[in-house]
Amino acid sequence: MRRGIRLKEWEPGIKREMTPAANLIEDSDGSLSADKVSITVSNDGFVIDPARPDSFDSRIIVMGDSVVECSFIREGCRLSDVVETKMRASGKSVRVENGGRSGATILQLLMSLQSKIIPLHPKKIVLMNGVIDSDALQFNTGLWSKGDYLNPIEEEKIGHPSPRRVESVDFSSRSKFLRLFADTCKLFNIELVLATLPLRGSDSYLDGYFLKHGPRHVRIEGVNANTREFCAANGVNLIDLDILMGSDTSSFYDYFHLNESGASRAGKILADHL
User: Fold this and answer.
1) Is 39 in contact with 46 (CB distance < 8 Å)?
2) Confidence (pTM)
């Protein structure tokens, strides 16, 4: 049996059109459109705006999961696109890469950092992740869970035992991976900035979402608390997007995924702080 490290990224160099799955639209608040959206991927596996300027003096990479990826938002309007546009408007010759990939955990993002990000010599990395961490950490196998979605290794299905749910989520392993992430960036002279996940404020939609998805929101709020605690204890810069966006309800199509308006607002906040 052949096995390999799983690099969570889009297939380099592709261009395709996609639409949200029916269950995602059904689970949304109505602001997730069923229209086709174009996805263009660079040779380095980043989701890009094909109309972006070619030249730049420095590079910033925003890494995370589907919240960063913004796959159902139009090209040029995704979170990373907004950051770059605003920073260029202020006179910064910067390339802001979208290093988000749906389903990526902190373990998988660390492997991506070490294998493909470091050689690109970015000036800064913004790490904004945690949704999938919170899903993995509800099991005893944690970030090493063998399910198709979470497994950090590409391998054939060979009858792995089903993971067991734990009584309470322990974020200590995530803290250790954040420490490895921060140490790696420091060793390679990359400035690391962490950002919390912006979360939807309370409204009638969210009441129904919580009933359907149970305690998932408690785990995701726990991820944000873990990010804040790590930054405070280790002197890492934090952009607390969840606080800065306030009790917003109009910027999301569900609990944590940004719609186009939300990507614009969050991107401008990141640009101002960067």
Assistant:
1) no
2) 0.95
